[in-house]
Amino acid sequence: MMNKVISLLKEEEGQSMVEYGIILALISVVAIGVVQAIGKKLSNGSDGAFDKVNGALDSVKQ
Fold first, then answer.
1. What is the pTM of this model?
2. pLDDT tens, position by position, 23-47
3. Distances (CA, A) of 24 to 19, 20, 21, 42, 62
């Protein structure tokens, strides 16, 4: 019984999946932060990129 517990503690196969999970979680956190930062810059009141493009298109139409 004790040998079985020791062999389970020495087994290293499952560690790589845990490492991949941690890397995936970190990448997800960074991606969410980037999307939020870009979103704020795109729709930041009248200074946002969408509003600037909309204003330029309105001036071209007239």
1. 0.51
2. 999 999 999 999 988 887 776 666 7
3. 9, 6, 5, 27, 50
Q: How far apart are CA 11 and CA 17, in angstroms?
A: 13
DSSP string covering 1-62: -HHHHHHHHH--HHHHHHHHHHHHHHHHHHHHHHHHHHHHHHTSGGGSHHHHHHHHHHHHH-
Report yes or no: 49 and 42 within 8 Å, Cβ to Cβ: yes
CA distance 51 to 42: 8
Residue type, 53: V
| Structure token pair of residue 35 | 């999307």
